[in-house]
From TrEMBL:
Assembly and oligomerization: Monomer.
Domain Glutamyl/glutaminyl-tRNA synthetase class Ib catalytic: 47-355
UniProt catalytic activity: tRNA(Gln) + L-glutamine + ATP = L-glutaminyl-tRNA(Gln) + AMP + diphosphate
Designated name of the protein: Glutamine--tRNA ligase
Segments carrying motif 'HIGH' region: 53-63
Domain Glutamyl/glutaminyl-tRNA synthetase class Ib anti-codon binding: from-to ranges: 358-458
Record GO terms (molecular function): ligase activity
EC number, as in UniProt: 6.1.1.18
Coarse class of the protein's main subcellular location: cytoplasm
HAMAP family cross-referenced by the UniProt entry: Gln_tRNA_synth
Amino acid sequence: MYNKGKNASGRFYFNIERLIVLEKPSSSNFIRNIVIEDLKSGKVDTIVTRFPPEPNGYLHIGHAKSICLNFELADEFNGKTNLRFDDTNPLKEDREYVKAIKEDVKWLGFEWDGLYFASDYFEEMYNRAVLLIKKGKAYVCDLSPEEIRATRGTLTEPGEESPYRNRSVEENLDLFERMRKGEFKDGEKVLRAKIDMASPNINMRDPVLYRISHATHHNTGDKWCIYPMYDFAHPLEDAIEGVTHSLCTLEFEDHRPLYDWIIRECEMEHTPRQYEFARLNLTNTVMSKRKLKQLVDEQYVDGWDDPRMPTISGLRRRGYTPEAIRAFCREIGVARSNSLVDAKMLEHFIREDLKLKAPRTMGVLRPLKVVITNYPEGQVEMLDAEINPENPEMGVRQIPFSREIYIEQDDFMENPPSKYHRLYPGNEVRLKHAYFIKCNEVVKDENGNVVELRCTYDPETKSGTGFTGRKVKGTIHWVEAKNAVPAEFRLYEPLILDEEAGEEEEGKTFLDYVNPNSLEIVQGFVEPNMKDVKPHDKFQFFRHGYFNVDPKHTTSDKLVFNRIVSLKSSFKMPK
């Protein structure tokens, strides 16, 4: 769809059908300033970052912020970025998620320098754990998970030492080896770091480093039955890969002392530095993979790629472009304090991206038949219509016009209020790209519903002829009936009604805020030149908004369009 390169100023550009879209260079932020200073001082020679997802779900828009930060930071300073899967929990991980994550990163426009898995380093991690035991810095504990939690203490009270804390080095080495050999049941024993049960940082109170899990791993099969905890594995992975700047969100700030302790006590050759930034919180959605998985599992949505989901695959299926998402991530920036971003800002960037790219066309979502009684029967004429008035280079298309057309039901009212400028008995409007028509007769069914309008047209008023004899106040869109292509339109509203569903009220869960009207499906028609569209083709339907050809439900016999976003919004970009 596009070719990626750099112009003379170093900014990325994307060549899209003769349209050049220049993307802004990285804006300044505190992490970027740290990188600049580290390079300037000689603290590091080359920047190495990584994007380290756990393969236990699909990526969402919050991950896109992290992806853009890591990859663009390394790109700017000629560094490297690894894609690494933190696959330390076989009970929740799956190859499906690995495949989806790789696809999402590539779709966003990034290529990783190295592809790694935490499981690639399991032997190395085991050896480092043995080193900790030999140094008297780790011990095998027989307390159950519940007992460990109960003796951990509180923010104001120290924890209680395990009765197994002072086992000898020899006994710990023997037990840990037997754990590896599979001699114990799940939960029967764990390996814990020996740090400080009175530490004001609860994460330093003898955290668990290894647990037993007799489960098949997606990458290592049944080779292992003990698995490192995330807080133990993560810093070792960074050190092994030579990561210079380990970027994570603020909830890991309290874990940083443990991160540093593990690297130091495991005597790693390389010492990365962890930096925390604010995660992305978006209105009217949830950003927890656990909650998103619950929406999928309980069938509130049509899979991880449901267009109502904030997942990257959901945004892609809805019709968002990688350019729009990258621009959005740059605009929200990188900060040290959490904040809530209006979802309408994301919508702003897809409008900006598509306004010059998307062909214009007409679609009738809720059809009402119109018969133009004075138009010659059997005659069909072709009318010229611009493909995109904001980008004249895209040229013109031809659309058929004949005696019978479809208009929108809400473009007609039998008894309209004042200042209603569309069609009603005795009123005249312009058909977009065509003629003036006047409503003369209303046809109803036995229930009193309007099913057809009888109109006349004025042949002198053809669009583009320069007719100035009189003016009309309303212009409506239409589709010629005989050649119209049936289509399904899927219209979306926010999935979560409450702006801050993450802040759940007492007695409620986020599911109580799920919008039962987040999806509306209507059947209508599109212009005949749309019959050969392909999945992910994008269009602006006159007055209705921007739409994407749904890749999941569109077939050779059925066209399905997802509305990406409406044409207008009350949202104003902050200055």
